Every structure is written in C-alpha cells, then in structure tokens.
Amino acid sequence: MDSRVPPDLRDGIRDTLPLLLGIVPFALVAGVAGVEAGLTPLQTVGLSVVVFAGASQLAAIDLLGRDAALGVVVLTVVVVNLRMLMYSASIAPYFRDLSARVRAGCAYVLTDQAYALALARYVGDRDRGTSTRRPYYYLGVALTLWIVWQAGTVVGVVFGAAVPDSWRLGFAVPLVFLALLVPAVSDAPSLGAAVVAGAVAVLGAGLPFNAGLIVGAVVGVATGIALDESGLGNGDGSGGGGDGTDSDPAEGH
C-alpha cells in the first residue's frame, strides 16, 4: 500500500478484512431482496447508500415490498438504529477536536463494527499512553465497510435482476434475520425480547399500515429491559444488567 497513506488508516483497513466474510453475503442478500420486493435497481442501491444499515435496510425493504406507509418504514428504521445514539455518545469524546463537517461524515459511516474496533483501539491507546491519529483508524474501518457493502449490494441487485421470477428469492430476508437473531439470544432478557417481539409482530400482522413489526419491536425491547432489570440477565437476582452484548454484523450499519 502507498507509503503516503497514514499508518492508522492502513491498520483500520487491515483489521476490517476478517469481518468482510460476514459483510459480503449480507450485502448480496440486501441487493437481491430489494429487487425481489419490487424496487428498481436504482431504488435498491439508493436505499443502501442513504440508510447504510443492514438490519434496518432489510426491514425497510420488507415493508416497502408490502406497501407499508412511508411513515411506518421510516419509524421502523429509526427504532432499529437507535443503538447508534449510544454508540455516538460513547465515541464522541475521541472526535471532539475535529470539525463539524468531518464529524458529520464520520457519523454517516458509523456501524457496529466501526464503533467496536475504533473504540477498542482508542481505549487501548489511552491505557498504553500512546496515540492514534484520529479519525484515520476509524475511517479505515468504516470506509472499507461502506465500499464493500455498496459493491456487494450492486452485485446482489444485478444477480437478483437476472434471476427468473419463478425462482422467488424472498426467503433470503427471513433467513438473514434468523442468522442475526440466533447469536444475539444469549440470556433470558434477549430470549424474552425475541419471543415477545416475534409473537406480537405475528399477531399484529393485520394492523393498519403494516405496523405489526414496529409494535413488536417496541414491546420486545420493553420486555428485554424489564427482564434485565429484574435480575434475570445475570442469574443472581441482584437486578444488575447481564454481560451479554448484541451486535449487527452488516450494519453498518
């Protein structure tokens, strides 16, 4: 790689490479799902560029394919991505010296993976008394993910458009959500949240504007919080939160 590239940027790119094994197939599914749901190739790619968040992007595609009201689609995406507020608040101190324009650009490419890798790097630097040029490491991670995600989505769109209608690839979306769900169910609160959210979403399938998904998400989150505060998350009845962590392997997102 060009020696003029900042070393921290190179480190970010290098540390991201193992993650691409999970990102690439997820991006391909997002592209295929958009075409399957009836979006044009341009609309699918545009949604990917604007939203850039795997789980919420697929949720939006699913709702758009079922002619849900635009307000419901936007609200669903916002709820799914609320964790980004916590990520932003946590990592913001490391970017406070940057201009507002640079911080806005960094916020756009914020994902689970970019947050986790960058925070670990910056906290490690602080503990060791060393320094990483910010935001180069973060951008090395985040921009690599963004480029690969968009490229994968485009390939998925091309592949999806070439598949005969009789093949019907709509099953890909629920399979991806199951792949995201299973590793995240690691304790009683997450299991309770998943079961309640799924049940409410199914029961609410007939709600106006296809609002069953958003209602299920809200009730599921509330259930998980209630179970965690009850002490079920740590198994000792002390009421503290559990030590399990949730992560979205494509979100970028």
UniProtKB/TrEMBL annotation:
Q: Which residues cross the membrane?
A: 20-39, 45-65, 72-95, 107-124, 136-161, 167-186, 193-226
Q: Which UniProt keywords apply?
A: Cell membrane, Membrane, Transmembrane, Transmembrane helix, Transport
Entry's localization field: Cell membrane
Q: Does the keyword Membrane apply?
A: yes
Annotated segments matching region Disordered: 233-253
Name the protein family.
Belongs to the AzlC family.
Q: What is this protein called?
A: Branched-chain amino acid ABC transporter permease
Which species does this protein come from?
A: Halobaculum saliterrae
What are the leading ranks of the lineage? Archaea, Methanobacteriati, Methanobacteriota, Stenosarchaea group, Halobacteria
